[in-house]
Amino acid sequence: MLGYDRQMERAVHDRGGWPVDAAIDRSEHELADWELLTDALVGALNREGVMNVDELRRGIESMPPDEYERASYYERWLYSLETVLTEKGMLEPGELDRRLGG
Amino acid sequence: MRYRVGERVRVAARAHEGHHRTPGYLKGKTGTIERAHASFPNPETRAYGGDGLPEQPLYLVGFVQRDVWYGYQGRASDRIYADVFEHWLEEAQ
Amino acid sequence: MSEHDHDHPPITDGDEPAAAARVRALEELLVAKGTVRREDVRQMIDWLVSRSPADGARLVARAWIDPEFKERLLGDARAAALELGLEPGPSPVVMAVENTPAVHHMVVCTLCSCYPRALLGPPPDWYKSLSYRSRAVSDPRGVLSEFGVELNDNVELRVLDSTADIRYLVIPIRPAGTQEMNEEQLAALVTRDAMIGLAQPVATTPAPVH
Q1: Is A68 in contact with A76 (CB distance < 8 Å)?
Q2: ipTM score here?
């Protein structure tokens, strides 16, 4: 087990040297349409000056740690989009849920 | 830019609430300036809707792996490099 | 702390995860509000699917053949890409690093998944995985071994953690037995994984660039 500085508190996204037992899963998947859409939405919002990449990362990092670890890559992006856009007043809290009929 | 290539620097061992791009495994570690990049907008303020100005000098800093990891399983010559902003660096003693 | 060797596949209900319907609804909402235009999103999708490792491979192949181009590539990868008619994108900054018999480079982004997408296409799942992000920095030789790369003892291994605005592209070593090959044939030998530092090109029948 490699030692790292346990006194330095780590946020969940700060993974360098985090203990890992398993071998790296090298299986790959083609990006699904919804994943491409999520990526493109972030890119378009960035280009529009609505939300930048640092805000995207910050939003991802704000996920509760267990959710962060459970979520897939683009589920994290989507969480960040909703969080940051709501914060900026571009989404009303709960608006997306209501639109989905929730 | 404050530091020159070849200079020994230490990464600040400070906790930082909120978004920052200095990885925990390098905090408190001492390395060498490998390259002085240009200056870039500060992600720590851009992440909260700021403009990231003034831009901050960015350096490629190299570390000896054995200095970073207790029990490192590799060669003495192995290195790890990261891009670190100037405000996270101090002169090494 | 729970450990995961791979990002979980999305939680699914039927064929698609809940996130799929959610992001579509989000796009509709944002378009309806005028926050973003549908055609801009479509254009972004088009750009994303147009990206592949073939562009990076062209840079490597030219560098193998032309030492002066290689120096230009090492000095300013963006300018070198533009020279070949490629689109490196205005940002972030891409920097090429060269593998030699004495030095082997390997790239990771421990904090998220930073990657030279304009030149390599989307990163593989494993690059974005929690386990790679953890072990690439603390156990790089173990990771290389898993990927079938064994370095000699005298090779200096350099791991690059892409923590800020720079994206790193590895120029792998030109394999032996390729003296008769032209640039196109050489480019076909350069895999995505080799340009991350997790493979070494060999002079065999070229596999699909992946």
Answers
A1: yes
A2: 0.98
